[in-house]
Amino acid sequence: MKAVALTRYLPIDDPHSLVDVELEKPTATGHDILVRVEAVSVNPVDTKVRSPKPQVEAQPKVLGYDAAGVVETVGEAVTRFKPGDAVYYAGDITRSGSNAQFQLVDERIVGRKPASLDFAQAAALPLTTITAWELLFDRMPYAIDNGGEGKSLLVIAGAGGVGSIAIQLAKRAGFTVIATASRQDTIDWCKAMGADHVVNHREPLGPQLKALGFDTVDAALNLADTDRYWTDLGELLAPLGHVGLIVEPRGELRIGDPYKAKSIGIHWEMMFARPRFRTADMGEQGALLDRVADLIDAGQLRGTLTGTLSPINAANLREAHRRLESGTTIGKLVLAGW
Ligand SMILES: NC(=O)c1ccc[n+]([C@@H]2O[C@H](COP(=O)([O-])OP(=O)(O)OC[C@H]3O[C@@H](n4cnc5c(N)ncnc54)[C@H](OP(=O)(O)O)[C@@H]3O)[C@@H](O)[C@H]2O)c1
């Protein structure tokens, strides 16, 4: 089968940073399904895993943590899917990735593809949606339906992949959403995703929020830079508020006052935790993707795809990584077809 892989960790402008390879088609056993991959998305995790370092892989390493495709074969323990089913999933960072014509994935972290989306649109969703959903509804104390009623939520990096779906999920849960964006294109996109207000994360946040009538916010999702906004969020969050984090800090975070004085809940989300540690509830990830497919098909959530490169090959994946590394992409970039 065709795949795109690396053996060395090189800058993306090096043509050897991601290369086209031929690999053996894997076989599904146990809870695994073998998926014929039709479309994949790229995420900052791909560029972080690929980041330059001296390490060399003995075997080609396949990246890619977002896919949509069709079930080809199933392992003997599989109960949720059968050959021919259309599916979407993020997968497991400890296993071979989705940048391959066929991929093994545990059925428990797979959802049925939304019927109203094509494969490219579906591939844009899983990783970011799992992240935003688990953060808001599993880690932070908000109920999926109406848990944000009467509350304000600041979403830092509203136009990014995670922000685009977080805004929609938060609006659906009833929050008043204040997103952050720094350019006209990203401001417009945040509004299209449903944000009630947009403030600029390149300017001090407090005065902009005050001008909109918010002395404090009830909750905040920092989806961009944990260290940079830590002090400001400590000031801006209301007593008994909650902050959600998804990005590894560069330095140490002071978790005492004002966070302690205000009893602010600090919540980490790592969307690979369930598959990586094979938690007893890992099936919740498949269930949430099914629920999201229903919400998409019912018109209550919309896709976040903004660009598609075709076919899925090393040259196009290098271009996709290059764009992601700029830190300025809007919504999701997908590669489709072989
Ligand atoms: N822990 C987890 O489970 C998990 C899951 C998914 C993602 N992540 C991490 O979360 C981060 C965001 O992921 P993503 O997919 O949403 O990224 P993304 O799509 O690449 O985000 C791009 C957006 O980020 C905004 N941005 C860039 N620098 C910023 C800054 N300093 N402050 C605020 N906004 C900024 C940009 O908006 P403007 O152009 O308007 O400035 C741009 O629209 C990445 O570090 C990723 O690795 C973690």
UniProtKB/TrEMBL annotation:
Pfam families: ADH_N, ADH_zinc_N_2. InterPro entries: ADH-like_N, ADH_Zn_typ-1, ER, GroES-like_sf, Lipid_raft_assoc_Zn_ADH, NAD(P)-bd_dom_sf, Quin_OxRdtase/zeta-crystal_CS. Keywords: Metal-binding, Oxidoreductase, Zinc. Residues 13-335 form the Enoyl reductase (ER) domain. Belongs to the zinc-containing alcohol dehydrogenase family. Quinone oxidoreductase subfamily. This is Zinc-type alcohol dehydrogenase-like protein.
